[in-house]
Amino acid sequence: NSAAKVVTALLVTLARAPLRGMLGARAAYWLWVSVPASAIALMLPAGSQPAGTTARAAAQDVFSWLLTRLDTLLAATQGLGPWAAGTLAVWAMGAVTAAVLMILRQRAFVRSFGSLVRAPDGTWRSEGVAEPMLVGALRPRLLLPSDFERRYTGEEREFVLAHERAHMHRGDTVVNAVGAAWLCVFWFNPVMFWALSLLRFDQDLACDAAVLAAAGKGRRGRYAGALL
Fold it and tell me: 167-176: per-residue pLDDT in tens?
């Protein structure tokens, strides 16, 4: 299963650039769904239901299989040898440590903003915010520097807000949270760290493509300038 995830991630890294050229940045971004999908698919039971089986019966079959797998896993952990038990303990300690460090870093990052003031447009302002950003997974907040109006022209502000709101509407903060959790589980695999950095790059390109599609051809150069 672990090897399949690595192979899938490597295939995605090879296919993303050609796919971006053929179908656009948003298609290349969606290609990353295949990495967790491959892991889930390998864990699912082989189809044994006859044609015409109802969705409820199929769901019951999958649920029964999950319970069986859980019982098998619990039984296997009880009979582990010293080397296998030690490996499992190292992995668990690494996963917990990675999760704790990630949570502490996120909390320190949020505290660095200082006091936040909500603007009438629903955004949040702070002197500790260096550049526009979204913070939060389930309820993201759009944070802006306190000198946002002075730093950017009216059109640049429009482009910047459109970019961040596109991230919000696409659910990119949830994707990033899932990616962070994925890294905690696979903390020992450098391929996953590399793949997540590429995913975030494709995420930004897909967001830019969405904003450019709404901006029109005449404003694309000015949008690029605003991002720079």
Answer: 999 999 999 9
Whole-model pTM?
0.75
pLDDT tens digits along 194-224: 999 999 999 999 998 888 888 766 677 777 7
What's the half-sphere exposure (Cβ side, CA atoms, 13 Å) at 111?
6
104, amino acid identity: L
Smallest CA-to-CA distance from 37 within 14, 8, 61, 11 is with: 8
Q: Tell me whether strands 124-126 and 117-118 are parallel, antiparallel or unpaired.
A: antiparallel
- Joined tokens for residue 141: 């907040």
The rounded distance, in Å, linking the Cα atoms of 133 and 149 is 15
SS3 of residue 141 by DSSP: strand
113, 108, 175, 181: which is closest to 142 by C-alpha?
A: 113
Residue with tokens 């991002």, as numbered in its chain: 227
**pLDDT, tens digit (0-9, with 9 covering 90-100), for 183-192:** 999 999 999 8
Report which residue type is found at 9.
Answer: A
